[in-house]
Design a protein that fits this description.
Radius of gyration: 17 Å
Strand order of the largest sheet: 4-1-5-6-13-12-11-8-9
Bound molecules: manganese (II) ion
Strand content: 15-25%
Oligomer: single chain
Length: 243
C-alpha cells in the first residue's frame, strides 16, 4: 500500500473551477506516494473524514493568503486571495498537526502554514521587499533563478548535504515574520525565508520554491518529495484510532 497524499485543490474562482498541475501529483508518485486531490470544502466533518483517508497532506501553490489571517488590512489592489481555500487549509492544517499527519507546503503552502501558525507575510514583495533577486520568474519554471543558503543543523541540510541550492522562484508573497512553531531552513540572498519546518513534529516542512516544476531535472526536488512521502508512509504504522 502506498502512502496516500491528500492534495489541496487549485481553485480558479473566475471560471468557477477546481484544477490541478500534474507536477504535484507526479512529484508524489515518483516518490512512491499515491496522490489524492481533495474537494474544496470548509465543512469540518467532511475534512475530518477526508484526512482519515490521507497519510500526508500537500499544501499547494496558488492565491495569496488573505492578510486577515495575520490580522493586517489588505494593501489595496495588491492582494488576490481565495477565502474558501484559506478556510479549508487552515482547518486541515490544524487537524493534521493534531493528528500527527505529515505536511508539505509549497509556495502558498509555506505562506499559509506560516500565517495559520501565527506568522506574518509580505503581502506584495515588489512593494514591501524590493530586491534585485528575481522571485517571480518567466517560464520555463524548471530552471533555477536564485540560490538559497541551506541552514546548518536543519533537516533540509541533513537531507541534501549541501550549504547552497539553486531554486526556481514564482512567488508574489513571502514570510515576513516566521510563526513561533517554525524554524527557518533556507534563506534567499535578499533575506527571505525560503524553507521552514516545525521542530518536534513528525514532518512539517514547507518550501517557497516549486519542486513540482523542477523534480524531473533536480535531484534536490525529488529528495524533498521523497522525504515527505517516506514520513507519510511511516505514520501509517500508527493505527488511525490512536492518532
Ligand atoms: Mn524566491
Amino acid at each position: 500500500m502506498k502512502p496516500v497524499i491528500g492534495v489541496m485543490p487549485l481553485v480558479d474562482e473566475e471560471r468557477q473551477s477546481l484544477w490541478m498541475l500534474p507536477g504535484y501529483l507526479e512529484g508524489i508518485r515518483q516518490a512512491g506516494g499515491l496522490p489524492l486531490i481533495l474537494p474544496l470544502t470548509t465543512d469540518l466533518d467532511e475534512l475530518e473524514q477526508l484526512l482519515g483517508l490521507c497519510d500526508g497532506l500537500l499544501f499547494t501553490g496558488g492565491q495569496d493568503v488573505s492578510p486577515a489571517l495575520y490580522h493586517e488590512s489588505e494593501l489595496e489592489g495588491l492582494v488576490q486571495s481565495c477565502t474558501p481555500r484559506d478556510r479549508m487549509e487552515q482547518a486541515a492544517l490544524a487537524m493534521a498537526l493534531r493528528q500527527g499527519i505529515p505536511v508539505l507546503g509549497i509556495c502558498r503552502g509555506l505562506q499559509l502554514i506560516n500565517a495559520a501558525l501565527g506568522g506574518t507575510l509580505y503581502q506584495d514583495l515588489p512593494a514591501q521587499h524590493p530586491s534585485e533577486i528575481v522571485h517571480k520568474q518567466q517560464p520555463p519554471y524548471d530552471v533555477p533563478v536564485h540560490p538559497v543558503q541551506v541552514l546548518k543543523a536543519t533537516p533540509l541540510a541533513a537531507l541534501l548535504q549541501v550549504e547552497n541550492l539553486q531554486v526556481n522562484s514564482y512567488h508574489h508573497q513571502a514570510v515576513k515574520t516566521l510563526a513561533p512553531p517554525l524554524q527557518p531552513m533556507a534563506l534567499s540572498p535578499d533575506g527571505l525565508i525560503e524553507a521552514a519546518y516545525a521542530p518536534g513534529k513528525p514532518f512539517v516542512w514547507a518550501v517557497q520554491w516549486h519542486p513540482e516544476f523542477s523534480y524531473p531535472v533536480d535531484p534536490a526536488s525529488r529528495a524533498i518529495f521523497a522525504a515527505f512521502v517516506t514520513a507519510a508512509g511511516n505514520v501509517r504504522v500508527i493505527p488511525l484510532a490512536m492518532r
